[in-house]
Structure prediction request, 1020 residues.
Amino acid sequence: MKKTLQEIAQYLGGSVYGDGEAMISGLATLDDAGEGQLTFLANPKYAAKVATTGASAVLLPEGSDPHGHNAIFHANPYLAFAKLLTLFYTQPPAPLGVLPGAFVAEGAKLGADITVHPGVSIASGVVIGDRVTLHPGVVLYPGVTLGDDVTLYANVSVRERCRIGNRVIIHDGTVIGSDGLGYAPDGNSWYKIPQIGIVIIEDDVEIGSNSSVDRAALEATRIGRGTKIDNLVQIAHNCVIGEDCMVCSQVGISGSTRVGNHVIMGGQVGVAGHVKIGDGVVVAAKSGVPNNVAAQQMVAGIPAVPHREWLKVSGSLPKLPEFRKALHALEKRLDALEKP
Amino acid sequence: MKKTLQEIAQYLGGSVYGDGEAMISGLATLDDAGEGQLTFLANPKYAAKVATTGASAVLLPEGSDPHGHNAIFHANPYLAFAKLLTLFYTQPPAPLGVLPGAFVAEGAKLGADITVHPGVSIASGVVIGDRVTLHPGVVLYPGVTLGDDVTLYANVSVRERCRIGNRVIIHDGTVIGSDGLGYAPDGNSWYKIPQIGIVIIEDDVEIGSNSSVDRAALEATRIGRGTKIDNLVQIAHNCVIGEDCMVCSQVGISGSTRVGNHVIMGGQVGVAGHVKIGDGVVVAAKSGVPNNVAAQQMVAGIPAVPHREWLKVSGSLPKLPEFRKALHALEKRLDALEKP
Amino acid sequence: MKKTLQEIAQYLGGSVYGDGEAMISGLATLDDAGEGQLTFLANPKYAAKVATTGASAVLLPEGSDPHGHNAIFHANPYLAFAKLLTLFYTQPPAPLGVLPGAFVAEGAKLGADITVHPGVSIASGVVIGDRVTLHPGVVLYPGVTLGDDVTLYANVSVRERCRIGNRVIIHDGTVIGSDGLGYAPDGNSWYKIPQIGIVIIEDDVEIGSNSSVDRAALEATRIGRGTKIDNLVQIAHNCVIGEDCMVCSQVGISGSTRVGNHVIMGGQVGVAGHVKIGDGVVVAAKSGVPNNVAAQQMVAGIPAVPHREWLKVSGSLPKLPEFRKALHALEKRLDALEKP
Prediction:
């Protein structure tokens, strides 16, 4: 694809500086961009690199110095660049139909313009929308439903009766609807509590690779519209995750916990079971959240406390051995003063 | 399935309160249950919900207030409800045999009444018991043995010569018997130590999705009878895990560690290599266990200490910045006193 | 395989003590070894076991007491034993070609002496070297390249255009090249940033089971030559990992972080995004690394500090409640002294 700088500026809603007729045929980073390529500056930390980039044009925050380059000024260069990447580099794959080597049970209902690769298994009672792509090794158990424009990458499995909305993307190896860890103590051993609920994944959710979302014991584990989940994440049974959340890699959310909308969790966060995380909460990476968190709080630490508090605590921690010494010194001084 | 309240009480060994002829056709939570459904109260925290539930009957701890509902009183309503779920909602699947699209090597021995789905690979020398179900994409490497009544969900792989007992359930994507992380330093690089041992999984074990249990370097990594392991758990090479343990999601147990019976580990716990965890130990979520833990201890923290101690420490932690101030204040007061 | 002790000593470059004609037909641990087997002592902690082992010979550090056993003395018994394991127990599998039930797209280029198991999917544009083994369920997306002597275990998937070097081993269920967690905030929701980069895995890398290495947003996520990565590890997009590193299980490395050569990370370590970890750094298990770490440092804790500091801090932590009491006691004593 080739476009003039002017065409691109118009597409993005930005303004051109320099030569609007410059031809752009690709996108790259400040460091790597060369002739014919457009790059972008989002983080002011890297502003100095604009001067030295080999790019033919730069997408810049309004008011930045283009250092003599052709440029597009835009209110949100990061978002604008993402939209250009979509324009230049992505296109819906041509549908290939059900390819030889795919196993489709009788009675499964398949939408239009789908691609089902070799090695896919589709069980009875499955319903699939239009423009769905199922990569090799995807397994859809009985009664699963997928909306339109869903992409499931290789070896994803979706267990019995789970429901997946429109425009959902799930990366390789992720499991939707495995049994929750539910057992009742029965004397010396554990009695398995049948997990008869399902998982509901709403529209526009994306889930990374090798993650696990467990089915509910009785009702539904739910991932809200627009929420993005990274790799190797555990969502336990009965959880309800809100809309437009961002859950980073290796997070674990224990059973029956409710997470509000627009919540962000850093990598390796753990959340206890049966707690409520309010809307807009941010949990710093590696934190452990044992209790409810009110909306709009930023929390950190194990156990998690308000982020400001945690900064003070973690700042004091390395001084703990000094405190010990200081305490002993004070005790000695007091001993001396108290001597008759 | 439909049963009278009286029939259910008899099945469970409980006593009926109210109308023993009430028909029960399903089970649900206190919040969701309606006409014809039975619900249960296990956690006294939710006792108030009994008054407002729409259920036709409630399974209650002996001595509870049924709030005018039909009820079954039982010593252990949680376990009783689990048994009802099994009765109402689970049944062994009808065996389908080896379905087209499954790959079975010559010389593999298959038991009676099994189901082998399309896309399963069974290598030479594999021995499979009766009533085994292998979902699509399961891979059994050469020499693997499975007992009776085993269920392996989609894309589980069991590596060379590993042995799996009776009634074992393994959820989608879990890997049994991948190589342990064993290397000998060889000058600047790492020399791979061949991992020639196996994994032995004893009877009645259940393992969640996307977990990894590594084969031993020389002998056997072992998971004891009745132990339940959650999703995304790492069991490293040479570990011996006892019986009836409960290992929550994202736990990692390092190589050659020995875990006793009835041990419970919360989510995201890490245990060092070559340590011994005694029988009945409970490790709180997110803890890091660097050393041996004596039987029947509850431990928490990084590094893990007795739970009571950890509660005091973690309770004191947020006050650390105050301590610092208090120390400085004391120093000033002492300075003043010491002035001649 | 059978060899005399003398032959083995010669192969390893060690010296025989006792009967050089003793026949060795297998290897085992000090505890388990019996007649005809050779064992080894690497950790002096277990030296007492040499006296009681049933082995026919022992591989010992120079100068150790053989306790009357036949022995080979060697400067590095651990490495020597690993080499013997390779000699006795491993051999390259006989190539079987492309087996029935494998799906190979037209235009894929396959090397000599390969084995492609049933259920493997090889897309168009894939290039595969010689002596490659692809276990069942492996999925190679369009444009992937594999070097020579590569082994991919069951259900590994390698996404579009990723490049894998020579002698690379990847264990079951691992995903190479899933999309990085890249989104631009777009008002209330997240706009997906197309991840158009790749993953490059250099020669002699080994990756465990169920790990995830994300493709770069624009360029390449890179795993350096000889680096060994364990199970359930997350390597986020744009990371560059150096050579001969050892990354233990459940480690998570956030986006765009650069890790030097010969770095060792213990289990469950988390590293923030956009940081630099110098050559030879050791990060203790369960640590959280928020910032750059200079070369040759050993760090520990959350947040990670120099290991020596952390030992002092974590040693003082359990005494925190005592400090609190001591502070109060000092305050009272001062109150008394200050009374007029």
Remarks:
- The radius of gyration of chain A is 27 Å.
- Chain A has a mean pLDDT of 95.
